[in-house]
Amino acid sequence: MQSTFSHSSLGSYENCPRKYAFRYVEKIRVDSEGIEAFVGKRVHEILERLYRFVTRGQLPSLDRVIDRYQRTWDEHYDAERIRIVRQGTEPGFYRSNGVRCLTNYYRRHYPFDADETLGLEKPIQFALDPEGHYAVRGIIDRLVRAADGVLEIHDFKTGRRVPSQQNLDRDRQLALYEIGVRAERPEDRDFRLVWHFVQSNQLRTSTRTPEQLDSLRRETTELIDRIRAESEWAPRTGPLCDWCEYREMCPAFANERTGQATQRTDPDEATSDVTRENQLRLF
Fold this sequence. Notes:
Blueprint: E1 4-6, H1 7-15, H2 17-25, E2 33-34, H3 35-55, H4 62-76, E3 82-83, H5 91-109, E4 116-127, E5 135-145, E6 151-157, H6 165-168, H7 173-184, E7 191-197, E8 202-206, H8 210-229, H9 267-270, H10 276-281
Helix pairs in contact: 1-2, 3-4, 3-5, 4-5
């Protein structure tokens, strides 16, 4: 059983206790990855790399950024390991989506001088209670000091779906990160949560009151208590099962005929990083 939880592990339990058990209790590792997650990783890597250059006072061109993305894709893509669920969709479609994400972001934020980067892919770990019984960890895509002095927690999203403002105002992931950053930086009082939906070139923000953060603490500790008390780990089927790396071993699909064609649902619809010249050439 986990001693430290993440937004991802909490969400895994909420979506399907059986999947949570496969990954976090039985610790079964599957050497495959959905292509949507693969694209997300590559885009995150390039944006991190871009900002590391920017913080050194260097700004690679968009062409260099896209060239690095293309080379990174080629270095990591393995057709035997990457799963494509949507029938009839070629890898090139997803590769182009990554280019679109990076192009949208670059053009929107160029010349990248509107704020100050305080952290990139910043690991964070904290407790929700004074005794430390409810430990949470995560990775902040980008921690930012905005022009108005507010501390911002930024998250890059590569999927097509853009949640409603109402759902973002209830988002757990970045709000948990705010709790952690507040513990690390008690001198900062004003925070803003920022999402970059880079495929659709949209930006959303939200803030939390102290009362909302206290409520989130309670809700998250109660969820952790439920996970710790779980014993059945029953599967919960739904559209996301098509994308689950544990489908072939899940008891809910024990009678499924191997190779049987099924109608696939888009997961976005289913779910409520010498000389100046030489250094730039390395991008």
